[in-house]
Amino acid sequence: MPTWICVTCGVQQAATAEPPPACPICEDERQYVGWEGQRWTTGTELVRDRTSDLREEETDLLGIGTSPSFAIGQRALLVCTERGNVLWDCVSLLDDAALEEVTRRGGIAAICLSHPHFYAACVEWADAFDAPILIPTADRDWIQRPSPRIELFEADEVTPVPGVTLARIGGHFDGAAVLHWPAGSDGRGALLTGDTITVVQDRQWVSFMWSYPNLIPLDAATVAAIVHRVEGYRFDRVYGGWWGRTVVEDGPAAIRRSAQRYITHLSGPST
Questions:
Q1: How far is 85 from 206, CA to CA, in rounded Å?
Q2: Is the peptide bond before 160 cis (omega within 30 degrees of 0)?
Q3: Considering the domain boundaries, does residue 38 fall inside one?
Q4: Domain range holding 79?
Q5: What pTM does this model have?
Q6: pLDDT tens digits along 110-129
Q7: Per-residue b/e over 219-228, b at no fewer than 16 CB within 10 Å?
Q8: Distance of CA 222 to the CA centre of its chain
Q9: How many separate domains does the chain show?
């Protein structure tokens, strides 16, 4: 039986003979059902129509996207370390090119995800590389394709491989997370955020939202809490969830000033 993939959000469902009647991810107010209604595809169809887009983001960091772009268009990141590789976020396509390149780099020791919109075909990837998928218990109800490879965790921090930290910071989803990679940015540290903290078009800034497509903001207290939770990590660069969405230097300052701007605009009209 096929494992259906939602065309709008790219998240893979459990195997069923017929497509599900709806996608729970898209019916939530943080996403949306496409203008043409609920549509489904499969991994087999994606391989026929698309290819992996593999790009070196920096030393030991491989970007994995899809060409032409699919669903919400995110790209995943493979963090390569001597103690094992971590796949940060996921895409819906797994083709031979991605399989061969990731295998050449040492495979995947763990899959870590920022939030449910980026779950994509994570079970497919986990099965291919015999890897666990780390998901916070707070987001367990958003798992669309159950698997024994999924490991739920309660803690605010877990260590997928030595030297790399997965931190639950909340906001966009209760379990929304970031990945801290101290060796990134030439040893100055990198924070991989998906859109738990999203890098905006002016890449000196970031933003925080409850729903990005529907433009529903977070409250001031939650934004302040997010900033507080990442202040304990040493990093320079911030990698958002799409190609080019990177704060290339002084990421902590970008997060602080962005939060202050956000909170200021929530408080009332500008003077």
A1: 27
A2: no
A3: no
A4: 3-15+23-32+51-267
A5: 0.97
A6: 999 999 999 999 999 999 99
A7: eeeebbebbe
A8: 19
A9: 1
